[in-house]
Amino acid sequence: MYRKFLNARSPLRLLEKGLHGGLGIGNVGVLVAGHGMGKTSFLVGVALDELLRGGTVLHVALDQTVSHVREYYDTVYEDLAASTHLDDAAVTHTEIDRRRSIRAYPPASFSPSKLREAVKVEAEMGAKPSLIVLEGIDLERVEREELQDLHALAEELAAELWLSVASREERVAGVPDSVAQFEDLLGVILALEPGPDGDDTVVLRALKDHDNPDLSDLHVALDPKTLLLVRH
To answer: What are the boundaries of each domain within the chain?
Structure first.
């Protein structure tokens, strides 16, 4: 299957429609989910979609190793290539690997300045990111000035920046307090949680969609077997 056709049929296009256009460049989005719900799988799916569209990705992990994150990419990509019969899958895999960088930091030592340094290095190597994924950040320990700096960095790069935040509960009742304090700096807030009883999928729900008061049903889920985004 040609990449353009694959990209056009991606469940992410459905997600973007539900979010009135998606996250958008220069914006910060947050994914909230309980342990084991698939935060990394979802964000890797977002990153692969960007890579297949010719973009460049910087994936920063504060709670996993580089090799662990790379394994997620390989697993999700292999399932995607197999399920869609992607043409020249091996060649495409090599190509997108060149436009994806993974970095890991101990949570206690990370700061937005570290991310700026990483972006500077990537840009000097000719790989300015169009998408940044920052996993495992503890917003309860983040100062407002730090999140403002992350937002400013997304604007300067004309990039999208996704954060993942752990929830204590599998089902997210509402925007957690740790996230709510920064809500004015966030474009999109999504919850990843178990589907209806008897449904083994993990569904996405919008908690914030820019300034739109109407939070539409996103009709997108994560298949726990393949780790792929699917229409729901």
So the answer is: 3-231
